[in-house]
C-alpha cells in the first residue's frame, strides 16, 4: 500500500508531519494493506492565515483493489485532530466495504448448487411421501 501526503500552501508540510501522518494511517489501516493499492492524504487550512474553528481539513482517498475509490474528510481545530478523525472514518468505511464483500463471497461459496430439475422433483416427491406416511401412522 502506497501512502501519499499532500499539504496546501498554508499548511507546513514538514517531513515530520508527513512521517506522522504516514505512521497514523499505517497503524490504523495496516490490516487492509493487502486490499489497498494507494492512500492519498490531503491536508488543508481552509481559512489560510486567519484563525477559525474547524478550519483544518483532512481528506483521505483510498483505492481498494477492484473497487471504486473511497473518500472521507474531517474538519477540526488542529491538523492532528483532522487527520485522526479522517483516519477513523476511513477505517469504518473500509471495514464495512470489506465486510460486505466477504459476506457476499461466503454466501456464494455456501450457496447450494442447482441440481437437475428432474432430480429436484424426485427429491420433493420423496419428502412429500415421507410426510404423508408419517401423518397416516
From TrEMBL:
GO CC, one annotated term: ribosome
Gene3D superfamilies for the chain: Ribosome hibernation promotion factor-like (3.30.160.100)
Keywords annotated in UniProt: Ribonucleoprotein, Ribosomal protein
UniProt-annotated stretches for the region Disordered: 105-137
Pfam families: Ribosomal_S30AE (PF02482)
Compositional bias segments (type: Acidic residues): 123-137
Protein name as annotated: HPF/RaiA family ribosome-associated protein
Organism of derivation: Halopseudomonas bauzanensis
Lineage: Bacteria, Pseudomonadati, Pseudomonadota, Gammaproteobacteria, Pseudomonadales
